[in-house]
Specification:
Layout lengths: L1 H33 L14 H4 L6 E6 L8 E7 L7 E6 L13 E4 L1 E8 L7 E11 L7 E7 L12 E4 L9 E6 L6 H15 L5 E4 L10 H17 L2 E3 L19 H4 L16 E5 L2 E6 L1 H6 L1 H16 L5 E6 L13 H13 L4 E4 L5 E5 L9 E2 L5 E4 L15 E5 L4 E8 L2 E8 L4 E9 L5 E5 L17
Parallel strand pairs: 9-10, 10-11, 13-14, 14-15, 15-18
Antiparallel strand pairs: 1-2, 2-6, 3-4, 3-7, 5-6, 7-8, 9-20, 12-13, 16-18, 16-19, 17-23, 20-21, 21-22, 22-23
The structure holds fe (ii) ion (FE2).
Fe (ii) ion binds next to loops.
Amino acid sequence: MKNLLLVFLSVFVFTSCQENEDKNLNKHEHNHDQHGHTHYNHHTNTPAHKLIFPSKTPDRIIINLTEDPAHSFAVNWRTNQQIDTAYVQVAEETHGPDFLLGDHVTCIDAKTQFIEVENERDKEPLVKAAYHSAIVKNLHPGKTYVYRVGDGSKKDDTWSEWFQIKTPAVDENAPFSFIYFGDAQNDVKSMWSRVIRKSYKMLPEVDFMLHAGDLINHSESDREWGEWFYAGSFIHATVPSIMTPGNHEYDKRTNRSKLSALWRPQFNLPEHGPLEELKETCYAIDYQNMKVISIDAQSFNNNIYSRQAQTKWLDSVLANNTKKWTTITMHYPIFSTAKGRDNKDLREAMKPLIDKYGVDLVLQGHDHTYARGYATNEGLGKTIVEDAGTVYAVSVSGPKMYESQDQEWMVKRGEYTQLFQIITVDNDTINYNSYTTKGDLYDSFSLIKESNGKKKLINNQSELLMRLKKDYVKVK
Ligand SMILES: [Fe+2]
């Protein structure tokens, strides 16, 4: 009887919470009229006002790595269209407010563009915004700077707060770390926020973050992009990031042939890609002793011109690469974790170059499962591999979960687990640790470049055994 009562109570509490949520959502809908925005009728999952509509105060502030992060950083932000002037103020960090004294603060002009999006598919309202963008140059490596963005006026409410940003170390072999996320994609505010926040809690000194595509589900959904910025909040403005587009950053209505109208306005990634359409999606960045390359895998799939251009470009970038370490990120995996998800054309074009130039890491997404291994693993289960080739990883950070099958290339795989990877590059060694959202170690390896030019792979012990979806929910 006691048990029955408990069940009844919990059902009641749950139902009651749902009702309150619904009431709140209705309230939001009415508020839109009061704020003078387009009225829209959305019965479920109504977007919160502040996730969608810009104001005169900067929001969606994000810093991106430039191709030369030792001397510059890129910053983007958004306001309403009443704000048509945009500046970045930057100074070297001080112990207190002293950077504001004298003439320590430099003011940089930003470019502004007006963008309108209306996601009718999800019954989202028309959103008119001003996107502002600047590259702050002439910085010194190994320094922490403070910056803020705003309209140049004296009023505080049109400026952001001051954020810190750290440039890479002077010694390019000094240790640095980055965090790699697979697809966030779904329920980003609700379910992905704790992943990026946990990763930041575990390593607040992280040097940059890398997103391997499918940051959101619907490329043209302003609400979903709003959720992505909300989830990362000040982390996006403090830790530089880079992102490679996935299929979901391409508009489904164009058969995934057109990049999201918001990608280029809201990010500020390198524009040296081999085609106009590959600007800010296919690029290379030098971070200390590592070259990080983004291949636009969806564009590669879309047409032969992009396929040929990216393959030729990658060959030339790798041929001229002088960095000790090389990482490639692309959304579609070279080795998929599941049958029926094979990317043969991508593998046949890219893998010969990856092998030829000895690329160290390939960081991917798309499969909504986890796997990590190398091409010649062949199920040997070795702890130490003396002459290792490229390590491939597929990961997922959001809550959408698929299944995988055990394959020869995999050292560790997993399902139904939201993960982030902390990768530390320390001169001749890379330490890669994949953590669950709880912070437990799911997979770990070290990659060591030896004096004979060979690369040793050490598969480290992790805390968790393989997690499979069937152990938690019924699978098809
Ligand atoms: Fe995908």
